[in-house]
Amino acid sequence: ECEVRHAYRYMSASVDLVLNFDTSVDLVSSVRTQKKHRGLGMARTVLSEVCTCADEERRTLILALEPDIDTSEKRLRQFYEKFRFRAMSEAESERFGMPPEWGMIREPRR
Description:
Helix content: 25-40%
Oligomer: single chain
Low-confidence stretches: none
Radius of gyration: 13 Å
Mean pLDDT: 83
Largest sheet: 6 strands, mixed
Strand order of the largest sheet: 1-2-3-4-6-5
Number of helices: 3
């Protein structure tokens, strides 16, 4: 399996990807913004760039929701849905090895 890690950055926000060149599926391994800069659209800006690149390269993105003390599962799910991520089906969860309640997937725009 050939993969590479790539980080997209914008001010204090970052999106880390694991790019898998053996398939057309990439893992969004983290989306982070420093706590003091949350709510300013930085993560939205950098994730938008990631999604645009995925569309141009015809790549599917997957991720696992990781709620923390400051961000609920519901809020995370709503955030990612704005970028056309959706909950994984049971079959997709099994295929990608993610718990069905946490996995999300985004297919490229046609």
